[in-house]
Fold these 4 entries.
Entry 1:
Amino acid sequence: MAAQAYLVVRATVPDAADRPAFDQWYQLEHLPDAMKAFAAMTAWRAWSRTDPAVHCAFYAFVSVAAAEAITSSPAIRALIAEFDAKWGGKVTRTREILAVA
């Protein structure tokens, strides 16, 4: 089944010295935890080639409604709290839902 929507989390890691630790933590801990908590179909992440400070994580869902439901769920609140405890004011992020056209 093809994804119909994506939750995209865009993080900005301005200090280049923080990027290796952020990369490892996101790969080994945060992405797998989020994928499981969200019950996402799949998930992946990427670093921008245009702006090396930008990291994006993509979570695929069967519907826009499923993706939108995550944005106010207890699961995302727990992951946000974990993220904030680990990265505090060092990393900013935004979230958006993309509907497949």
Note: The longest strand covers residues 5-12.
Entry 2:
Amino acid sequence: MTTKGATTKSFFPNIEDRPQLRINPTPNFTAIVTGHGNIKTYIHKFKIIENPKCPCNKGDQTVDHIIYSCKLQEQERYRLKAAITKSEQWPVSKNKLVLKYYDNLKDLRTI
């Protein structure tokens, strides 16, 4: 079994549904749903930077860190959680983040 594409698959488990979604794939959104791009753990893997630490100094900058715990994303996460908790409990699956809460998810950014 391969782990290639595992991050993307967690957001889009059924790729056939993707064309039906109205998504504007910005660089930040693309980095978050792929785990590639301007995410420190990804850049560190290629030895481009010395360490994968997030600028918030609370852990490595991973996709999960950006979405669920980065101190620098508190305002964006607050808006995301507020939208979600109107009808369900936080946290929701990454797939549901894209399907139902894209407008709030797209505000998260890599640093």
Note: Residues 94-105 form the longest helix (12 residues).
Entry 3:
Amino acid sequence: MFEFVWFLIIGLIAGWLAGKIMKGRGFGLLGDLVIGVIGALLGGFLFGLLGLSASGIIGSLIAAVVGAIVLLYIVGLIKRV
């Protein structure tokens, strides 16, 4: 249960950071937070595919931010079409 709470907190922070990094591609505060939680899953998956390990809070946050940025980029491309 405690791990799930940390996952949500890291995802929320990652979404906020990704929204700040990808200026003009964000979806507002609430949208970026949802993107961050989904991006945390995507980031963990992508890091696993690349054979990278994200351990600890900082590593998890980095993986989540990378996943959220990738997700914001993909959603931005789809939204443009």
Note: Helices lie at 2-21, 28-49, 56-80.
Entry 4:
Amino acid sequence: MQGKEFEGAAEALRNGDLDAAGLPPQERLLLEFAGTIAQAAYRVTDEQVDGLREAGWTDEQIAEAAYVASLFSLFVRLADTFGIEPPAEYEPTGIPGAIRRG
């Protein structure tokens, strides 16, 4: 999602607002799956994976999404462990709402 026509969707995703992103149902399901992995991977269910298949995602695509979500979770945990924050020039509008620490 790049370019002016996607700015609103990109900002919504950056802030963790799937409702405001206006995604097609197929893509939203995949992001919800990634979110489940990021928040509590043990909560992924067979029904959730079956729903992805029914939405048209292949097993290879589902596995790729799981790998990417898992790796990002690892990176976030490592950054949290070592207190690593992105340089201000990478986040000119501030830390995204989706990752703000409470």
Note: Residues 34 and 66 are 6 Å apart (CA to CA).
